[in-house]
Design brief:
Distance between the termini: 36 Å
Organism: Shewanella atlantica
Strand order of the largest sheet: 2-1-3-4
Largest sheet: 4 strands, mixed
Oligomer: single chain
CATH topology: Glutaredoxin
Structural class: alpha+beta
Protein name: Orphan protein
Helix content: 25-40%
Order of helices and strands: EHEEEHH
Shape: globular
């Protein structure tokens, strides 16, 4: 997904993703914050023209895994889908692409941080 030019920061879709510590293995709680910093750096390269990524640890399961906003205004899934449609992308495909990327980042992170 690319645009012909980068959007101004306030028009970008902010994607807050809460990542489960368990995805990093049994001691994931000890590494989740480091992983989120690593993921934040790496995700800046993914669709930077119109997406701002915020990966955070998911300590509170009552909070949604994915949250969308534009200019600090939270969007429903339907509104996020409408936004992505402007870039010829479907929300389910977008989320699947994101989860695939996170899986790759987890593998990369774990290979670099084996004890």
């Amino acid at each position: 997904m690319t645009t012909s030019r980068a959007l101004p920061q306030e028009k970008k879709l902010t994607v807050l993703s809460r990542i489960e510590p368990g995805c990093l293995g049994p001691d994931g709680i000890d590494h989740i914050e480091s992983f989120c910093r690593f993921a934040n750096h790496e995700l800046k390269k993914v669709d930077p023209d119109f997406i701002k990524w915020i990966p955070l640890p998911r300590y509170d399961k009552s909070l949604s895994e994915m949250q969308y906003s534009v200019n600090k205004k939270q969007l429903s899934r339907d509104k996020a889908a409408q936004y992505l449609a402007l870039f010829e992308s479907e929300l389910d495909d977008f989320e699947e692409h994101f989860h695939d990327k996170v899986s790759l980042l987890i593998n990369e992170f774990l290979s670099k941080h084996k004890e």
